[in-house]
Amino acid sequence: QKEVEQNSGPLSVPEGAIASLNCTYSDRGSQSFFWYRQYSGKSPELIMFIYSNGDKEDGRFTAQLNKASQYVSLLIRDSQPSDSATYLCASWGTGKLIFGQGTTLQVKP
Amino acid sequence: DTGVSQNPRHKITKRGQNVTFRCDPISEHNRLYWYRQTLGQGPEFLTYFQNEAQLEKSRLLSDRFSAERPKGSFSTLEIQRTEQGDSAMYLCASSSGTGGNQPQHFGDGTRLSIL
Question: B15-25 burial string, b = 16+ CB within 10 Å, else e?
């Protein structure tokens, strides 16, 4: 079992819709969770981080954390074609950041 | 804040050669991390430093890999006797603080191609 799991996709949504990206993790000791966006051929760019159960909102992005279910999600409202990228979920545990394989999002005009 | 800087951006070398990459972190960041990323995968942790101390090293890292951060500022990652499987993007990231809850910011990476 991978420590951080994501569906590789692609997830396809129409422009203006809500994109929902999901991630599960296996280490119950993980305390911090991060979402990065990565365009093809580029390096990961931090979008959001969340430490506590519940929701955290930043503009069009909302991160959700449920530690009991070991589940993290990222919602993107009013999706734009420029949001098309790979979204990486990561958890901090046991002294290092563990990444999932990423979910590819395609926003169609 | 000039961001994390990595050099070179691209490196092409023959199998068996040694290569060295450099990373300059964000100036006020005391933690520096190295990752490797192959196509279709998320970044894979290699090692990290807090100031000049190397605190964690992946068990996946063979003895051919070594990293240094001699003065707690820039870091170098050396790969000796390169192999085909070393072809990847090598990413450096930095963060502030001493805990794992501080966001890491990535450089543009060094893409290594082994001929």
Answer: eeeebebebbb
- DSSP assignment of A70-93 equals TEEEEEESS--GGG-EEEEEEEEE
Per-residue tokens: B59 = 């068990």
Per-residue pLDDT of chain B (115 residues; tens, 9 = 90+): 579 999 999 999 999 999 999 999 999 899 999 999 999 999 999 999 999 999 888 887 778 999 999 988 999 999 999 999 999 999 999 999 776 678 999 999 999 999 9
How far is the C-alpha of B109 from the C-alpha of A40, rounded, in Å?
A: 13
Of the candidates A4, A102, A108, A105, the one whose C-alpha atom is nearest the C-alpha of residue A44 is: A102
Say how far apart CA B50 and CA B6 lie, in whole Å.
Answer: 18
Tokens read off for B37: 């990323």
* B56·A90 Cβ contact <8 A: no
Is the Cβ pair B42, A101 closer than 8 Å?
Answer: yes
B85 DSSP 8-state letter: G
Rg of chain A over Cα atoms, rounded to whole angstroms, equals 13
CA distance B80 to chain A (A): 24
Q: Which of B85, B28, B94 is nearest to B60 (CA)?
A: B85
